[in-house]
Amino acid sequence: MVLKKWLSIFCMVILLTPSFVYGEVQNQETLDRERMSLYSEAEALTFIPWYYFAAIDTYERNIRLARKDIPKRTDGVLSFYISPEDWSGLGNPVQNDSYLPTIHLFGGIGMDGNGDGRANSTNDEDILYTYINRLHYYGPSRSYIKMMLWDYYQRSKTVEMIMGYARMYEKYGKLTIEGNAFPVPLRSDHSYQSTWGAPRSFGGRRIHEGTDIFAHYGVPVRATCYGIIETKGWNRIGGWRIGIRDLQNNYHYYAHLGGFNKEISQGQIVEPGTVIGYVGSSGYGPPGTSGKFPPHLHYGIYKDNGYTEWSFDPYPRLRMWERQERINRKK
Ligand SMILES: [Zn+2]
């Protein structure tokens, strides 16, 4: 009896799964369509290409996910953030005021973007219009947009991230750019364990901020995601290393490389599986130092929240990507 009950639950789960997955895809498509139409509206208003608005929105969405001091949005599809004080004006007794005369009276910046006569702080068009009006507009060229972003965010890392995202959206012409790969070929002889947080001593007391994937010299090292090469070169601990920024504000760090793929350069867009370099044992000294430990790839992920970055354990993702790639190969 119990078995029969479990069996029927099991069957229900099986039956429900495909429609659930399909529903999720549908949702993402609807979201992308709604967002795209708002970015296009912004482009029509400003002559700034849609992909810059997509990039800013993505950056701000990631910030909201990573920070507790900025509220999550429960309605709407955009993530541009304008604080309640900025929107309604300092000292305005109505916290989310939508009445334009009182907003103006208190020096608030909330505006009416959809033409209903109200400045509604939960309406996407009103938010977007208010955000646009807050920008210092110099012109639609790349360098002018960069200046505009600098004025707004006052942080070069943020400006670089947004400019990078914009290039990715421009290249692919769509908002959902997804996929992952395991950093070394599955067929290569490799092993790794969860050692994030273990103590390390070279270069002062610190913790191990990543996972070491042991493999032979010369095994190709591959990008694990879509992203932009943010750093490439030598650092004392990491040796020859590469840093890739993805669309979730993550910085993927590949260290101790034996060499780089010669085709790879800073600022370049990479895809899951793009070979960026080769396993080696470089690091722990001045440029060229090598062989102080067995060859391995040190892989770390750092998350940015708009003012600082922190490391988190990449091990669960590595296991997931490895499993996923195995499954895909069998298909
Ligand atoms: Zn390591």
UniProtKB/TrEMBL annotation:
<dbReference type="Pfam" id="PF01551">
    <property type="entry name" value="Peptidase_M23"/>
</dbReference>
<feature type="domain" description="M23ase beta-sheet core">
    <location>
        <begin position="207"/>
        <end position="305"/>
    </location>
</feature>
<keyword id="KW-0732">Signal</keyword>
<protein>
    <submittedName>
        <fullName>M23 family metallopeptidase</fullName>
    </submittedName>
</protein>
<dbReference type="InterPro" id="IPR050570">
    <property type="entry name" value="Cell_wall_metabolism_enzyme"/>
</dbReference>
<dbReference type="InterPro" id="IPR011055">
    <property type="entry name" value="Dup_hybrid_motif"/>
</dbReference>
<dbReference type="GO" id="GO:0004222">
    <property type="term" value="F:metalloendopeptidase activity"/>
</dbReference>
<dbReference type="InterPro" id="IPR016047">
    <property type="entry name" value="M23ase_b-sheet_dom"/>
</dbReference>
